[in-house]
Every structure is written in C-alpha cells, then in structure tokens.
Batch of 4 targets.
Target 1
Amino acid sequence: MVFCLRFGIISVDFNKIIEGARKHGINYKFQILDHIKPAIESGFKHIELNLDVIYSSPHCLSDKVKDELLDLKEQKNITFTAHLPIWAIELSWLNENIRKASVTSIVESIKIIEFLDPEYYVIHATGDHASNLYRLLKKYKDSEVLILPLVEKASQSIEEILAKTEINPRKIACETVEFPLKYTIMIAENYDLSFLVDTGHVLSGQPGTTDLLKVTRTVRNRLVGFHIHDGYLRIINGEEKRADHIPLGYGDMPLKEFFQLLKEIDFKGPLVFELPLSEALKSMKYIKETLPEYNIV
C-alpha cells in the first residue's frame, strides 16, 4: 500500500549554525534560507519556521527573504507552519511583567509572519519555569494544587493573544510540553485551540505519560500536527534516565503501531522532524526500512 504523509523539518539546523559560527566567528550571520533550501533539496515539502529567530537574528526575515518564502509556497507548493517563540517566553508565569511581555512577543510574532499564512502556529502554553516547578512538585505527594495558578495564568495569556490578534483559535496548536497533559488539553478545549503532539516529549514522559498512542487518540479531534523524534524514559541502575530529540530507532517509539494509528485516524497534517537535517534523513531511512509494507512517500 502507498501511504502518503507530509514529512517536514524545522527551519533551524543547529549543527549548521555551529559549523557556521566556527568558520566565521563573530562575523557569522544566521540566514534562514541557508537552512530551508537544503531541506527542500533533500525532499522535504513542509517547513516549520522557528520564530525565535525574529529576535535572535532580526535581519533574517528581510523583504527579500519574505518574497522567497512566498515563492516557495506559491510556486513550489512548499507548506509552512510556524513555531511561536519559546526562548525566555513564560505565558504561565506568576510575575505579571514577564507574562505580559511574553504575550506581547507572541502577538508580535504572529503579526510578523502572517504574510505567509502558516497552516497553524505551535505554542507552548506553559514555559520552562512551569516545567521546572512541575518537575519539583512531582517529588511531593498531593502537591499538584500548586500548579493551578500557572494554568490560570496560561489561560489568561491565551485569551489575550486571541483577542489581540483576532486569529481563528484553531490556527493555534498547543504542544505537549513538560507539564501535566490534562491541563494542556483543558486549555486547548476551553479556548477551542488545535493540538500538536510532540512524540519525543511524550516518549520521555514530559507530560506525565509515555503512552504516545493513547495521547494521540485522546486529542485526535483537535490534532493538526506532530513533532517527530524519538525519546525514552528508562530506569537504569536504579536511576531515571530520559532523552528526546534523538533519531528514530534510538528510543522507544512504537513505529509500526504509530503509523497504523495515523492511517486509522486518517491523519493529514505534517509530521515535522525536530532534528538536524542529517538526523531527519537518517530517521526517514529508518522508517522506510522498518515499514517497507507502507511504501511511505
């Protein structure tokens, strides 16, 4: 059988950035097309734009680059999604100055990239500080109540983002991050957002479960995309070890069952590799060799 899926990749290859920085030193300038074009030449038809670069490398979205991105979309049928900023963004934090600044950054990012009309915008409803608190509280019994104020702040931020952008809520996709899954789902349902499952985040237990198939089934009615990479949560010599953002085949991804489920639910969205290009290609090869019966294209 032929199984037509849209595989994509993120627009930032950190291996390439490190290589460029080593070569050019302080004169190195990130150029987004230098990352996108090799991915397209390698066969990827979908690109997820990392919008943190708006702030780290503001020159990289010049009018000329915008025209080239539009050309890729309109002339070469490349599809796009956008990952809203996550570096130092804290939509759920209790410090109102930080939370409001985070909302401002998200709103600004949406407006900057709306010229491309991405299929959806990936959002982390809760940030790194929320993840750190969640990780700490897991050590204590009956402590989850302390997370609830963060859920309220995240909800407030989402409400403000929707009001200030007037965007269709289904264009915002909540990602599975290191925070209790039930609260991320609750936020998505309360504001009629879409949902994105990050496979490595789930496989490494970040949302409180490692059951990727169950998570996918739970959110299927809101599901618009995946971040795809391997991960695991294991007990080794009595210690908890976890990993994510590793190539497929190096973690606990139930590959056959996962693709069977995608076929079962008739999934049409993109599967975006959050890996360097070399590791994404390695993962594609692994999929095709492991599941030859699907004839994935």
Target 2
Amino acid sequence: MIFTTIPFLIFLIAVLAIYWSFPSDRWRQPFLLAANFFFYGWWNWKFTSLLFAAILISYMGALLVQRVGTRSQRGKYFMMGACTLLLGLLGYFKYTNFFLESLRGMIEHLGGHVGWSTLKILLPAGISFYIFQAISYVVSVYRGKLPAENSLVRLGVYLSFFPHLVAGPIIHAPTFLPQLVRKRIFDSAQFVEGCRKFALGFLYKAVFADNLAAPVDVIFKTLKDQSPLTIFGGCLGFYGQIYFDFAGYSLMAIGVANLLGYTLPDNFNFPYRATSLIEFWRRWHISLSTWLRDYVYIPLGGNRCSHARQYLNIIITMFLGGLWHGASWNFLLWGGVHGLALCLNHVWVRNREQTTSLNKKTLIKICSPSPILFWLLTQGTIFLCWIPFRAATLHDTILIFQKLGTLGTMTLAQLVQAGSFPWLLASLPLLFDMAFNGSEGLRTRWSLHSTLALYGVIAGALLIGLLFMHSGTVNFIYFQF
C-alpha cells in the first residue's frame, strides 16, 4: 500500500479505530503486529515468511548472546552467526543476480562463454531496512546497550512496524524497544502533531515529487532523443524529486507513528541547505548515516587511527552505503564518489583547522571562499552524484555526462522551452526556502499555537495535495531498496 492511496487511508483509519479501542497494550501490540503483517503482505503475502524469519533469527540470536554473556567470545560468535544469517537473506534476494550478471560480463569480456542466466528472484519490499534494523538489535544486545527482548510479539512489532517498514527511517533498537514497554495513553497533542506531519509529507509527495516524476521519467527513458538542456532539466528535476519523495515519505511515516502513540527519529534536516558534504550527510537520510557510522565506520576504526586509514574507512563505508541502495555498478559509483568527496572535505577541514591554529588570519580571509561558494560547490557535487543514482545503467550515466558537456553551445531560451520546467520552477521556491531559511523557518510556520489554525493548515495541505496530485500512483523511490 502506498501512503497516498485510498486503500492505505482506509487501512489506517481502521487500524487507528481498533487500536485505540483496546483498553491496554496487552491487546494493542498483538493487533499492531497483525496489522504490520497485513500491510506487508499487501504487496506479496509470500514475503511475510521472510519477514518472520528475520524476526525469529534476531530473537533467538539475541537471547543466545545474552545467555552466554554479552561482550564474551561466545556471545560474539552467536552475534556474528545471527548477523551472517540476516545478511545471507539480504544477499540472496538483493545481490545474487548482480553477482551472476557481473561475473558473466567479466567472463564474456575475456572471450569466454557461460551458459547460465540470471535467476527469477523478486526483491522483497523494504528488505534492506528491516534487515539493518534486525542487525542493529542483535549487535546492541551484544554490546550491552539493551537486554534481549523476551517477548516475540514486542520484537516483531519493532521489526515490522508498518509506518517505516518498507522505506525507513531505520530505527535503532535502543530508541524504540523501550517505547513498547511503557504504558500507552492517547495523547491528543501527539495525535494532532502526527496529522500535521502526515499532511506535510502528503504535500511533499503528491504535489511536488509525483509531478516532478512524470517529466523526469520521460527524459531518463529517452536520453538519446533529448537535448543537453532537457537532460539538465531532468537531472535538476530528480534533484528535487528525490528529496520531496523521500522526505515526504519519512514525514508521513513519523506522522503515522505519532498517531499510534510512538515517536520516530527525524530522517531529514533540510539537507539542501548544507554547505559541505560532511554537513549534508548529517542532514540527509539521517537514520542510514547513523547506522553506517555505528555499525560500519566505527567498527572499522572510525577516526581513531591514522588519517589515511580514516579516509579508507570513509570510502569503504560509503561504498557499502551505495551497495545497500541497490545491486548495480551505478550505486557503487554513487557511493564511491561520495566517499572520495567526503575525504576531500575532511582534508580541507583539517588543513583549515591547522591554518587557524597557526593564527594566519590574513591568509584565511583571502583564501576562504564565501558560504555561497561553499553551498554551490556542495550542491553541485550532490547534483552530479544524483545522475548515476537515477540513471538505469552505467552507459546511460556516461551518455548524460557527455551531453551535459555540450551545454555551453545552448541558449537560455532553449532552457525555458524544456518541457519539464514548469514544475521545476514551481518547486524551486520551496527548495530555496529549505536551503536559505532552514528548518527553523518552516517549523515555526507549521507550529501554530492556535488549534483551529493548525487544523486549517492540515486540511489545506491535504486539499492542495488532492487537487494537484499526479494522476495515477507513483511509488516512493526508496521502496525499491
């Protein structure tokens, strides 16, 4: 079910009505677990068994870790065993065909011949998200950050919680499982806050993301027939689309969780106002960045090592982050470029700090670019990195960069005539609002003190979304991951 469709709204209303009619969590949590599995089975009921397997592996693995002792050698073996099984599920469904295709291509490039073909493996929705959550739970128990959960129902609710099940945010077990133990009382203020966030996310998705998706999809499917400026317009459109799409989903997920009495962490903090790649990754897909930091970067050594090793750790982490997004060389390229750019950013920061420590104030004043230049450089890098992320193949990525390289021969009039630009221009004011006014501006405007005014804003956002939403259903981009 897509959050912006009628079936989901019917499902949500029914779940809320039944959920809050129960007198205590003793009945709410089993019902919520059933609702989670119904939601996940809506796409393909067969994959509910895979979700249950992930829950069972993490449940048994954590109990075994706790039984033999956290931080113990035997506990480490059980933790690694559970994580291996979980990664095995992810690897089989998401990366088997990528491995077979890459191996076949390499052999054929060397003049050989292979007789196998790819397997008919359907990628389960949201598998990357709930597998990462399961790993975070088992590792957190091993590290002693929380006790193993004795209730299979509570752990099941955590791993299958439908608001964030298929596209995040990725929730760390220590921040969510304690909420399942507390007594839940209906909070009208939290409920209204959930409506506000859902309405804003609906506006982001239905009005901005979906209307940008239509021309962007056409342009990327017909690259050979498009002019350089039209392709540039398509890339700019995707730059806006992916933010509105994913941030919209995250807001809606957080809002639905609030309606059920739970709190989820913010996943975006206006990343397009970032003036460095380091800052961007503190603002974009925060839950994934935090997960990669805690479970990949820090275990590799983080910054507690030589500078060269730290840069290698960054590149490895971003490569894995790219691979997490999808099984293709494009995503590896996207992750690798971000990794290299982050390393350059760290080198710049370190050199600037050393220069400051030497009190070379004149040199700093002369050589330090203005914040606008930092912003342009950062967003330009992000814009270019979105190209391999969106392109279907490496060949398409190369073609796009080849055509963009000829932009100097075009005129501004041709830019205005590009078919995708009406909705691009419509989205730019909000993009600039996010970039320059920042989170405080929008949050202040959306945090109204008058209850009546707040209800009006919520209703208005939903009405605008319904009036201007794109005809037809457009999947959220991150559903494919």
Target 3
Amino acid sequence: MAAERAQQQEEEGQVEEAKVVERFEVVRVIAAPAARIFGLLCDPDGHVAIDSSGMLQAADGEAVRAAGDSFVVHMDREALNDRPMGRYDVTVEITRFEQDTLIEWTPTSPGFQPSVNHHFGYRLRPTADGTEVTSYYDWSRIHERYRAAGVFPILQESALRATLGILARTVERDVRSVRNVDQYLT
C-alpha cells in the first residue's frame, strides 16, 4: 500500500526531495553575561575546557580579538574511536568576529589539503535571564573531495549540545563565585 502511494505521488510530481542537512544549530540560555561567555570563547584554553568530544587536548596562542586571528589546538581523534587519525594539530582561523555577539572559525591543517572549509561558531544574544547562546557547525562549504568521502558531519548535534552544557556550567559557576565573594565584601 505504501509503495503504491509513493508511486502515485511520484507520477503526480508530489514527491518531496529529501533535504540534505549540512548545518547543526543548538540553542541554550546561559545565566551569565554575554561578555563573560564571549571572553571564554576567545581564549584558546577555553575551547579545550568546554570541548565535549574529548578531541581537544591543549591549545597554544593568545586570545583572539578579530577575524584573521588564529591559535593552534592539539587534537586526538582517538577520543571518538571512529577514524585512525591519532594525534595531530589544527590551526583555528577566526573567520567572523563581532565582539560579545559572534565568533566563527575554521580549523585548518597542512595534513588536509585542500582545506576542508567547515565552520564552527557561536552567536550570543542578551536576554532577561542571561545570554541566549547558539552553537553551530556548518559543513555546507566543504571541498568536494571531502564531501565525496562521506565522512561529514565529523561531529553530531549532540556534541554541540553537550559542549553548551559544559559552557553553561563553567561560566555560571564563575558568576556564582563572584556573587559569593561580593556578599562578603559588602
């Protein structure tokens, strides 16, 4: 019966094409000011601290302040147990930067030529309860070589959601600590 209905829809031109997903977005309201969250996202060590995948091992470099800035992240794909890549380094190149509002980057590596061209980022919007944080992963612009390999997305949406949870825990704990100290100073 279902096959007959599908055949009829196809003949009548009513078949919807399957939508190809090339971007994940997850949103969470975090009880912390946008400036505090953004500061952590600009810090290379902050990326390591909130990573839920376990791939980010350490980072070298200064806090980023503009598009074009970069830092190095030491990676270990072994954490995901999916591809035998072992340890490697990527350079995180900031592609978009709007203070306290938007940060986006693409990881690059001499071992991946041509450049993969996938992007990660965060958008921040102040709310009455703190900051609405949108985390996204976009692989819509990846090079055809990588698209044909069928390995994207390299992370699942659940990893973005988990990282937002770690981000919330980290910055909300810091905000609570400041409030606790403030009560003793007044």
Target 4
Amino acid sequence: MKKSRPYARRPRASAPKNEISVPEVLTLLGTGAMNVQELVPWSSNYTFLVSISSGAQQVLAIYKPSRGERPLWDFPSGTLAKREYAAYLVSAALGWPNVPPTVLRDGPQGIGAVQLFVDTVEGEHYFTLRDAYREEMKRIAVFDAVINNTDRKGGHVMLGKDGTIWCIDHGVTFHEHPKLRTVIWDFTQEAIPVPILNHLRVLQSKLGRPDPFVQSLAPLLSAREIDALCQRIQDLATRGVFPEPPEDWPHIPWPPI
C-alpha cells in the first residue's frame, strides 16, 4: 500500500476516539459492513479507501481486491492479497514490526486484503526517520528478509500521528526464490540484536511442528513458499547477521520512495 497522503479529500483518523483492541479491530475489519469511499489514485493495483462499521464502531481501511491486481511475471496471478495477509500474520507472530491489522475477506469487488488505515505524518518516510528510529528499522530489515520482500520502498515506512513506526505494502513477498529488494541496507553484516534472534527462533519452532500459525499460512502460500520461509528464518537465526545485498539481483526498488 502506498503512503497515506494525497487522497482527493483528507480522510479522518482511522480509529475511534476510544481505543479498541487489536482483536476487536480484526473482528470489525473481517465482519463489519464495508462501504467504498473512493479509489486510491496512485496505487499500482486497484486499491480502495473504505469505511467499515458495526454498531457504534467504525474505521477506515484500505481494501485491495485480488481481481484488481496487475499481473506480474514472477508471482502467480491473484495471490498478492493473500501475501499481504500472510505478512501481517508473520508480523503478529514475531511481535514486530508494526503492520496495521489486516484480514482477508469478501468485499464489493470480491476477495481482497483489508488493512486498517493509519493516519500518518505528512512527508515522513524511511529516509527521514532512519536515524531517529534505528532499532525499529533493524526489526523491519529482518522482517523483510524473513518474508522475502521484493518492494520495500522508503514510502512504505511511515510515522503514525501517535508516534508509532508503521510499515505497509507487503503484496510482493514470500517468493520461493531469493528476491529481497529494499532500501534498508544500513545494517549489512552487523550482528542481529539478540531479542530479534530469540523471536526468530520461537517462530522457527512453530514452523517446525503442527501449529495453528502454520495452519493459518497453508491457504495463503504454497508448500514450497512455506518451506522457503522456514529456510530463511533458519539461515538468519544461524548466521546471526543482517543479510548482504545480492549481487545477481537489483536490490534497491525503483523509485526508492
């Protein structure tokens, strides 16, 4: 998803004044009544700003229907919404980084990923934030290596108005072959912090046995993609250092923001 700026009209904050819990947000996103507000004009795929409501609760969200996905030569057609949801599940299992609550559900344009809209500070992105939020950027860098993110642009890292660093746009992820493409190469060959490694090992243990987390990924990714995910986590946990840019792959996305 693109950065939450120039809508034709600026949407109001995405969450109600009285905070609701993440499980409540996920339930609302998954079961609430959806109404399309407008088409997001700068997205490479068909993407809609929607309102989702149930009773007195209402939020804004970004809806990416599978049928609106632009075909890609290296990803199976109609799978980006599933990958977007799988990326959220991995972030939730790790406990980082901050990916807005995301579900996979039916909508006016069919099945798609639905992600909570986050109101962000205008003009802030990875390149303006990286010096002040280095530890958070390290978590995002490891996360991208885990999910094999092939499109981490600077504008996909945002500062929420609540001071939270958020990362979005995880549709082109989880390919079975190495395709890491990102602007975050600041930590190449540095040691991965121990708390991050510990979380990776916990996730690795879940993937190595029958677990509800593994079952949640099975409808979203192919068996080979899940095997590759397990291998990437094992490699990161074993080597204990941030990855190097690949020599045989364009490792920085364009445009970088």
